[in-house]
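Appendix B. One record, verbatim.
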Amino acid sequence: RHLFTDDSEEAHQLYRRLQAGESFETLAAQVFEDTLLSRNGGDLGWVKAGDLDDEFSNAALNLNKGEISPPVQTRWGYHIIQLLDRKEQVMVTESVLNAQRSSLEKRIRRKKSRRLANRYITDVMADLNPQPNPQKFRRLWNAVVPKDEREKSELSFKVSF
């Protein structure tokens, strides 16, 4: 869990208050506008170290269970971190890897294919520079929507790129 502020002095005051015995829950209720974090004492839940900012991750990895860090500066501001628990990463055995190899390879190929397809579409669209054509859209609308329905609802649209 953590406490967060964008002010260095406030972060150091919070740290001193924790050292003096105030609870994380009390301070989280005061500093977080986010109702979930203020209610749960700043608990982030289970988080992988690689999912966090490098400074935050490094500080958390260097804590022992229950230990509180001094203020840690990240690109977002200042955090005070308390490590509540740690899960060690499970190593996969060769037999498990071999058993799942086929499905893992398929997932990787699909992911690469999607990434390449998205890149291709982005490149093609950038080169083509498509522009909306309101007259063609209206003709299409008139061809698709029955006349009595067109009279009930007025067609108005705004296209922006």
